[in-house]
Amino acid sequence: MPRYALIGGTRGYNQFRRVHEQIADYEYVELDINDSAELERALKDTRYSGYNIANPFKVEVIQYLDEISDDSKRAGAVDVVMRMPDGRLRGFNTEMAAFRYMVEGYVEDKKCLIFGSGGAATASARTLKDLGASDIVIVSRDPEEAAAKLIPDPDGEKVRLGDIYKVTGYDRLHLHYDAHVVINCTPSGKSPDVEHSPLTDHRLTMRMFSGLELAVDLIYDPYRTKFLQDARRLTGCHIKSGVEMLIFRAIASRNIWLGKPDETDQDKRFITPIKRRLLQEQLNVIAVGMPGSGKTTIMRRYAYELGLKFIDTDEETEKLMGEKIADVLAEPGLGEDYFKAMEHLAVKEACKSRGAVIATGGSTALNPLNRDLLRANGIVVY
């Protein structure tokens, strides 16, 4: 049986591996690679027929390859490597095609903002340009450094990022309130730091984009990042999570490795059922409601019947405090503020679970910070 591996990315809970397990009959493992020397050794290991490459190795891996595809040259990055029959290593880029799948039909003649200036941001910008976006603005913490960054042009020559795209800082973001599409290509908001977004990190709000039509986040864990939740709540725009892009890339990787023909339209039909199965495993089922409404009783039984982990946030809060909630609320010097702070910590920890059943306290959903945590990776039932 052929063997493939993931190099880079987050260790532990990895949706990419789970997608591969659903779409093909081959062995797929995660390699613990920490530096260039380990990367080179892994690529020379002939036990592996190919690799997925994740950050921080998408650019660095190119120097160890014998050839790369045209899309890799345009993106300046490689996320798939195939070992050819003669032993040569060829690199491919599936991210541009996956991003195109996400945004095609939304961006023509639209003003688009991209948060971040790394490889994913520049690849996204190229795709937006191909799709006819009217204006592309890259937002960076250090706009001068980002503008001077060298990236490949369509012919593979190195050019300055600022010579091709507009680059601005977060302090001048108010000048682009007329954006139609916003795209997060930064890691801000990725699990476990789900309370962050590139905007809130700079004390800004999504509300400034009153004409927003689409928000996209390349992050796929959590399913609903704060970036997407804020966009939906404050502007009412359409939102897209990185989960579908992840699935598209896994299917494209499989097709490259197994020599399957490019049948993008046919492959798209598999994305929804794969996404459904992936989210059944990833998302928690969470009950909110008034005290005494049956949250704990019903959800405990639900978890028991399905063999799922059960969490009661009131019980977890009491463990953190070392006292019963009623005693804390009645105790001078502690009271409701202390309880709410401890409850928030308990909710945050509970929401790190995958596929669990969670019963919340009667007042949990009154805290907007708790609501964002519950929705990030959860199906919330009132």
Keyword list:
382 residues, single chain, alpha/beta
Topology:
Elements: E1 3-7, H1 15-23, E2 27-31, H2 36-44, E3 50-53, E4 67-68, H3 70-75, E5 80-83, E6 89-92, H4 95-103, E7 111-115, H5 119-130, E8 135-140, H6 143-148, E9 150-152, E10 158-160, H7 161-164, E11 166-169, E12 181-184, E13 214-217, H8 226-235, E14 238-240, H9 243-258, H10 264-282, E15 284-287, H11 295-306, E16 310-312, H12 313-321, H13 325-330, H14 335-350, E17 357-359, H15 368-376, E18 378-381
Parallel strand pairs: 1-2, 1-3, 4-6, 7-8, 7-12, 8-11, 12-13, 13-14, 15-17, 15-18, 16-17
Antiparallel strand pairs: 3-5, 5-6, 9-10
Helix pairs in contact: 1-9, 4-5, 4-9, 9-10, 12-14
How would you describe this structure to a colleague?
By secondary structure, the chain is of the alpha/beta class. The protein has helices spanning 15-23, 36-44, 70-75, 95-103, 119-130, 143-148, 161-164, 226-235, 243-258, 264-282, 295-306, 313-321, 325-330, 335-350, 368-376, and strands spanning 3-7, 27-31, 50-53, 67-68, 80-83, 89-92, 111-115, 135-140, 150-152, 158-160, 166-169, 181-184, 214-217, 238-240, 284-287, 310-312, 357-359, 378-381. The chain has a six-stranded mixed beta sheet, sandwiched between helices. A six-stranded parallel beta sheet has the order 11-8-7-12-13-14, with helices on both faces. It has a four-stranded parallel beta sheet with strand order 16-17-15-18, sandwiched between helices. Strand 1 (3-7), helix 1 and strand 2 form a beta-alpha-beta unit. Helix 1 crosses helix 9 (243-258), helix 9 packs across helix 10 (264-282) and helix 12 (313-321) crosses helix 14. The longest helix has 19 residues, at 264-282. It is globular and about 70 Å long. It starts with a strand and ends with a strand.
